[in-house]
């Protein structure tokens, strides 16, 4: 029976199970296969099934970024003559948010399109939230949100405001909330989940902001952290997830009844095999994408990123960090997207704004293109 005589849903399921080399070979068999395999949304689905690649850069910025394609523990590093220090501030749905020389840049490495946005009022890296929404099957839009903190009207209160950009300009949201003071966790990136951005505070409460409606609120959650435990806020398939890890165990908690009676409910206990009973100089909980928990373990010889697969219930090495890397990393679990993104411009035809940066800020452009090429080269299917 010919492949193209099968129902479309079966054709797609077979293609999704192929390795990348076989996937490309199937494209060459007939026009039907070529049409399916070149569809941007199907390519995104294909790679999402393969798991997450790893993208990381030093927390204090660097001229070099590193990328580990899914299934390859080796680090591939960006190359180029750039003299600019880059920060990677966020990742969401295939797009990355870069900060370089006083500018944000939103980039899609797979389509090689990007946009620079000038912004010079960032209080800290962790104050920046990055949101990407799928408008339809082939189109995305993004928003960047910067949370600001001011002293409240009463002693012991903090007032939060929000600066928002959808790519064309920045505006100050009319939304402000005032609540009891507690520092935002500067060691933790905000999380985008089901249309909302979430910042964890030191007292375990959460500030949330909905970019679409510009509504904000305080979620007064409580959590009894074990002494010495490391925390990470992430997004699971159906809930916000808080990871609390000790040298012996990793605990996963889901936030239930988030807007009525929020409570952290224990959902998983995992033995922390990469760390337990080992002589390490340091270790970190680095990421969670709903399926894999990442733990980085560093000793005198090697610096390794381990991933725990929640479905397979196993630990495995997913990346080896270069010896020259910083002790602290901003690490992201990357899945590609071929969607068209409102506002992003082709690198070879960027319009007046991109021409401005090409002429007067060429190093910014070189740096962004090096990071995009670092990722793009591994998804040429």
Automatic annotation (TrEMBL):
- Do you know which InterPro entries this protein is assigned to? F-box-assoc_dom_typ1, F-box-assoc_interact_dom, F-box-like_dom_sf, F-box_dom, SCF_F-box_component
PROSITE patterns associated with the record: FBOX
Q: Which residues form the F-box domain?
A: 1-50
Leader sequence segment: none
Among PANTHER family, the record links this protein to: BNACNNG10540D PROTEIN, F-BOX DOMAIN-CONTAINING PROTEIN
What name is this protein filed under? F-box domain-containing protein
Species annotation: Brassica carinata (Ethiopian mustard)
């Amino acid at each position: 029976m010919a492949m193209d005589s099968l129902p479309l849903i079966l054709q797609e399921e077979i293609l999704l199970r192929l390795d990348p080399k076989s996937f490309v070979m199937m494209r060459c068999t007939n026009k039907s296969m070529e049409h399916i395999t070149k569809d941007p949304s199907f390519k995104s689905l294909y790679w999402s099934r393969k798991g997450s690649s790893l993208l990381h850069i030093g927390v204090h910025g660097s001229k070099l970024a590193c990328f580990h394609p899914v299934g390859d523990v080796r680090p591939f590093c960006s190359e180029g003559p750039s003299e600019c220090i880059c920060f990677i501030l966020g990742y969401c749905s295939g797009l990355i948010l870069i900060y370089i020389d006083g500018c944000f840049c939103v980039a899609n490495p797979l389509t090689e399109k990007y946009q620079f946005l000038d912004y010079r009022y960032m209080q800290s890296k962790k104050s920046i939230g990055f949101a990407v929404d799928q408008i339809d099957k082939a189109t995305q839009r993004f928003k960047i949100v910067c949370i600001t903190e001011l002293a409240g009207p009463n002693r012991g209160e903090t007032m939060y405001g929000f600066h928002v950009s959808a790519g064309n300009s920045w505006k100050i949201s009319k939304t402000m909330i005032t609540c009891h003071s507690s520092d935002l966790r500067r060691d933790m990136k905000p999380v985008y989940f089901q249309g909302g951005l979430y910042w964890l505070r030191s007292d375990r409460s959460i500030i949330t902001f909905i970019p679409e409606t510009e509504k904000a609120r305080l979620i007064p959650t409580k959590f009894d952290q074990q002494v010495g435990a490391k925390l990470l806020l992430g997004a699971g398939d159906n809930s916000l997830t808080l990871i609390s890890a000790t040298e012996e165990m990793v605990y996963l908690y889901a936030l239930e009844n988030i807007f009525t009676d929020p409570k952290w409910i224990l959902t998983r206990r995992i033995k922390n095999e990469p760390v337990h009973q080992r002589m390490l100089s340091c270790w970190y909980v680095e990421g969670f994408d709903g399926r894999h928990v990442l733990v980085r373990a560093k000793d005198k010889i090697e610096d390794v990123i381990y991933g725990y697969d929640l479905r397979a219930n196993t630990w495995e090495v997913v990346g080896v960090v270069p010896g020259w890397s910083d002790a602290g990393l901003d690490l992201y679990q990357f899945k590609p997207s071929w969607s068209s993104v409102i506002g992003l411009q082709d690198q070879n035809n960027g319009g007046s704004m991109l021409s401005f940066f090409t002429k007067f800020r060429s190093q910014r452009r070189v740096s962004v293109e090096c990071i995009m090429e670092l990722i793009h080269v591994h998804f040429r299917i």
